[in-house]
Amino acid sequence: MTTRSFMMLMVCGLLVGLPRPDSHVALAQVEALHRPLDQILDLYVRDGLVYYRALKSERGRLDRYAASLNVAPAVYDAWSRDEKAAFWLNAYNVFVLQTVIDQYPIKGRSSAYPTSSVRQIPGAFERLKHRAAGRSVTLDEIEKTILPEFKDPRLYLALGRGAVGSGRLKSEAFSGDRLEKQLADVHAEFVGEEPMLKIDRGAGTVSVTSIVSWHEAEFVAAYDKGASGPYEQRSPIERAIIAFIAPKVLPLEKELLEKNEFRVVFHNFDWRLNDLTGGRVD
């Protein structure tokens, strides 16, 4: 090999390691896509509750943002894993907001759910279609078909299902470059939010949101390290729950876990509308 050829190979090798000139531009474009939602959530969401009445009266920005989510598949395919995951979390949450304000104030008749529940809207999760990334999807399809591809159960706890029982809807949009920090916050909040986790030391119970039972396979795959150690006699989902909450609970709650004399139960999901206008109750 000549000296000239060797130098050319060295230069090419260095160039391969450099970021593409348009990478920062692409990142800025993705961030710009979700900026309107960031502003909407900051204005209309407080402590996980939504000013639905005010949002409905000024829904133009919400609808424009929702329409902007129907990016070309080629654009979506070029994004990183975290950018794609953040995209679907934002899409799900904004589609729920749209679904609620389309029918707000909700006055349903089904005795199975609270009067103003999003579940009173026929087909809200399983039939109503939305456009995103060149696809026509329902809310259930996002949760049950798309999000499992990312193999991170924390994503299900970040979905704002329009209900008090959901993980607390954040006052900011999810972002690819901050997703890990945002999901870490979701994880930390899990142990402090009663709709998510209730530890009763007196009764010896660890009561967990039904969201975990809905996604049992994903939580087991991510957090159960196998039948060994002090919890080897417990079921895979119980071991997964213990591994998920143990690093975050308070010292007295951790003491209960270490004694290994508690029962794990799943409490019913609270489908009351997370409406700040009317508060947490119907």
**How many strands in all?**
7
Order of helices and strands: HHEEHHHHEEHHHEEHHHHE
Number of helices: 13
**Largest sheet, if any?**
3 strands, mixed
Strand content: 5-15%
Unreliable spans are 3-21
Question: Helix content range of the residues, please?
Answer: 40-55%
Report how far the terminal alpha carbons are from each other. Answer: 79 Å
- Radius of gyration over C-alpha positions, nearest whole angstrom: 22 Å
| Main structural class | mainly alpha
Summarize the structure.
The protein is mostly helical and 282 residues long. It contains 13 helices and seven strands. A three-stranded mixed β-sheet has the order 5-6-7.
3D architecture notes:
This protein is mainly α and 282 residues long. 48% of the residues lie in helices and 9% in strands. The chain has 13 helices and seven strands. It has helices at residues 3-17, 23-44, 52-57, 60-68, 73-77, 81-103, 139-146, 154-157, 179-190, 210-214, 216-223, 236-245, 251-259, and strands at 45-46, 49-50, 130-132, 135-137, 197-200, 205-209, 263-267. The strands form three sheets. Strands 5-6-7 form a three-stranded mixed sheet. α4 (60-68) packs antiparallel against α6. The radius of gyration is 22 Å and the shape is globular. Residues 3-21 have low confidence and may be disordered.
Write the layout of secondary structure elements.
Layout (H helix, E strand, L loop, with lengths): L2 H15 L5 H22 E2 L2 E2 L1 H6 L2 H9 L4 H5 L3 H23 L26 E3 L2 E3 L1 H8 L7 H4 L21 H12 L6 E4 L4 E5 H5 L1 H8 L12 H10 L5 H9 L3 E5 L15
Parallel strand pairs: 6-7
Antiparallel strand pairs: 1-2, 3-4, 5-6
Helix pairs in contact: 2-4, 4-6, 6-7, 11-12
